[in-house]
Amino acid sequence: MKKTNEIKTQVRLQDAQALADGYSPAIRAMEIGAIVSFMALELFLVYRLYANPHGGPWLLLSAVLLGYLAADFVSGFVHWMGDTWGSTNMPILGKALIRPFREHHVDEKAITRHDFVETNGNNCLISLPVAVAAVSMPLSNSGWVFCASFLGAMIFWVMATNQFHKWSHMDTPPALIGFLQRIHLILPPAHHRIHHTAPFNKYYCITVGWLNWPLNAVSFFPQMERLVTRVTGLVPREDDIGDEAARALVEVQGATQAPVVQAAKELLTKATTEDTAPAPAPTRPS
Questions:
Q1: How far apart are CA 252 and CA 262, in angstroms?
Q2: Per-residue pLDDT for 26 more than 80?
Q3: DSSP structure class, residue 107
Q4: Closest by Cα among 3, 1, 7, 5 to 247
Q5: Whole-number Cα distances in Å, 228 to 40, 81, 225, 245, 259
């Protein structure tokens, strides 16, 4: 805990206004095009699925629910990548995709001031290849119908993720949204607040957040970071929180085991201690 607090004092974030100014007219035009294209592809997929003889209510419902769970994982993976790797100075990707992640850590309320295009354009853009794949499937049997429905549902929820994320940062969201947050059907503010504690290295899933605990328990993202660093030599979060804090965090995470491993070792140690403890001396009846 002491080492983690020391890292928090070393965090050096970028200038909020400079990051906000990086949202250019060219990026906005690209996002508008992405939203229009995404909506058109999703509607075309619904048209193809409608009254398809190989579908059915249970097949479609299961595809939608599994798509929701998959979107939670995808949101976490993309969020982790955007928070952890790359730089705002990278050509194209830096301004269009990485900049919003950096801005959000500096000014987490900025997302509440974004309109529909700025909030959802990025997610529509990254979902376009999957949308093309979904509408290209033949739908000639129930397997294809399920795959197309699953992909279509997943990217719909991926598109909705930033809207859910935006609502989780609002002081007074609409009443229905607040109810859905309280019963944890969309991302609750208290749950997401865990991520917004420097150095911003956990609880990345932001569609609903159901997968945050299991992924954190097995140290999924720290393990991925070690792998990427081993292969590329890159330091995770160097652009986001500064070189000093990023390197200190790598050192701490390298010495930390996954929570499930720690729990298993504690249980094993306890069981071993109990097995090897001397038996109580027999007492003589009085």
A1: 15
A2: yes
A3: -
A4: 7
A5: 36, 11, 5, 18, 21
**C-alpha dihedral sign at 156, 159, 164, 167:** negative
The radius of gyration of the chain's CA atoms, rounded to the nearest angstrom, is 23
Other CB atoms within 10 A of residue 259 CB: 13
34 or 94: which carries more pLDDT confidence?
A: 34
CA distance 225 to 115: 33
Residue 110 CA neighbour count, 13 Å, CB half: 19
Residue 61's pLDDT is what?
A: 95
Could you tell me what percent of the chain has a pLDDT over 70? 82
Confidence of residue 3 (pLDDT cuts 50, 70, 90): low
The string of DSSP letters for 242-258 reads -HHHHHHHHHHHHT---
pLDDT, tens digit (0-9, with 9 covering 90-100), for 99-147: 888 888 888 999 999 999 999 999 999 999 999 999 999 999 999 999 9
Q: Is 183 helix (H, G, I), strand (E, B) or coil?
A: coil
DSSP summary character for residue 138: -
Structure tokens at 232: 């590329």
Burial of 25 (0-12, 13-18, 19+ CB in 10 A): exposed
For residue 175, what are the CA distances in angstroms to 179, 201, 209? 6, 31, 20
Query: What is the C-alpha to C-alpha distance for residues 21 and 188, in angstroms, rounded to an integer?
Result: 29
Give the pLDDT confidence score for residue 243 in this predicted structure: 80
Q: Pick from 219, 205, 173: which is nearest to 76 by CA?
A: 205
pLDDT value of position 2: 47
Say how far apart CA 179 and CA 57 lie, in whole Å: 27
Say yes or no to pLDDT of 27 above 50: yes
Q: Which residues of 182-202 are buried (b: 16+ CB within 10 A; e: fewer)?
A: eeeebbbbebbeebeebbbbe
